[in-house]
Amino acid sequence: MSQPLNPTAAIALLNKSRFYGFPSITFKLLQPHKSPSYIGDTVKFRKYGAVSLDSKGSLLVVDQRKRSSQFKVCCDKEELETLPYVQTLREFPKKELAGKVVMVRFDSAILLEALDKSCEVVSNAIFTIKYLNENGAKIILVSGWRKKNKSKHLDAEAAAGILTSVLKHKVVALQCIRDELLKTEVLKKTYILLLENLSEFKEEVANSSKFAELLSSGVDIFVNDSFSLSHKILASTVAIARFCSARLAGFHFEQCLYQLKKTSTTDKKPYVAIIGGGSLYEKAFALHFLASKCDALFFVGTMSFQIMHAFGYSVPSTLVEPGAYKAAMDIIRFARERNVSILYPQDFWCIKDCKSNQLEVFPSHGISDGWLPVDLGPSSLDQIDSFLMKCKKVICIGPMGFKSSSPCINSACKFAQKLSRLSEQDCEVIIVGNMARKEVMKESSSSSMVYDRIDSASIVWEFFKRRKLPGIMALDRAYPFEIDWSSAFHDPTRPLVVDIGSGNGMFLLGMAQRRMDLNFLGLEMNKKLVRRCLDSVHQNGIYNGYFIMTNATTTFRTIVSSYPGDLVLVSIQCPNPDFSDPQHRWRMLQRPLIEAVADLLVHDGKIFLQSDIEVVAVRMKELFLTYSKGMLTLANDSEDDERAWLTENPFGVRSDWEKHVIDRGGPMYRLMLSKSTEC
User: H or E segment at 601?
Assistant: First the structure.
């Protein structure tokens, strides 16, 4: 296996081909985009057009949507590995949804509790389900929820009633996940199906494969729209992905992913982080990441005392976090090296003891014994106000107050007013965490404050620690570049031949010179081989051949689906077998790739497979016939011998390894699959 896609390397290949004067393909890095917001009767795709709904909430028109180039992103290798480009429901072909059984993992905290339809988070979650329903999908909803909601018992039937009201479409509860026959009968009636409460199954938190397989029985496509669980490993978000042909991000999930990526972009300066809460030691690595992105870190809450302690100030012993001193010192040193300001509050409102109503303001490093901070003091608020005055981007993560905050002071409301004024001055404001959001919600609901929100602070802290989020990693990948096919080929409408794992390109280059009526695309993970192939393309004056460095297993669908012509032939030749690890012996041939090839291939299109190892060839054939959903048949099938191999290469052009094997007198096991014209 080669390394994951590196945009820098891809662009380097692009520049090299330009140097030779060859009309190279144009790669445009896809930028994070805002997903639709469904408010009232219109769903607006920013930069994409609009989706109109009638008075009953039915989808009427969906405009063509293009990838946005409005926003900048960090495209370093580590960033792509932590937050890969995933396949979204918005970009998935609508025609592929019709008649398919789609399982949606929804967020119960949004659809069963937060029912303010004017809220963008709620409207996006609703739209995911409406969009699927209006495009002919058969929908199964699944989630886990609290058994009691507002003191009412919430079983599956009650939850289905709430969802019916929210979606304006009949939702039927299925009392037994294992009842596949009943599941099929309900779906035939065009109802939306709701499975049992997953919080009642221990297999859910155990990420049980058997449970996930049972859960997904009969399901074609999985849509994850529960972003708040991305940092957890659950059967309904991770294990289930193995059993579905496509794994997509819903509209709410896509919007949250976009918001998460924005936290690490440095397109607006000065960028300041207001950091609340505690546990500095646990978040030390994440704070280093913030210091590498921001111009200043302003610590409030319990964490501020760890910073003051590291600066050498006296702080109450009850507020000192064990093990945090060295971590705070490292953060201060790291920030100083990068000329990043470290700030903390000047004063606090303090209370004499937890049961007392006696409040008094103390300087931050002069709190008297027996007094505990409960909120930011007036000088601290003025300090924040003056400091943020010139900021163009602010992220507030974690609660601003303390465990024993006093409602009499309400510094959070005053702080929210300051953020509101900032947002009106073209400052980008990001609020992270439910507690921080609730602290500013009252103010924002009565003003023109505009801010981005991420409800789960845990996910953001994990992202800042550069950890991969399981719920995101389980989704299908998308190719992160928009391809200008007219730059790649002289005539991009010609039928396309794709060679997966094209190696040094000997087969594809030979074919391109023989068949000028076709276009040839090589997908290869080794950048050195791709560079050599691009050199050969230029040197031989080939205008109907091109090579892209990518992992076709995860990006084949997004690359080939954007091609304007028909896909007529796909070849996979001599994949490297790994006999030391039988479970991953044919890692190239995973289910998502096979299904993508079968879906995109034109009727009567062909798939050419060959290997010099018989067991590999047999396995490739079995996998294609198993996962092609009945669309493929053996073009050289014989009733007498199911393993009747092609004796000769039907194209008359050999790959480099095929030539090597033939020259040494070895056998080649070849077969051709054909897509049925009746699909």
Answer: strand 601-611
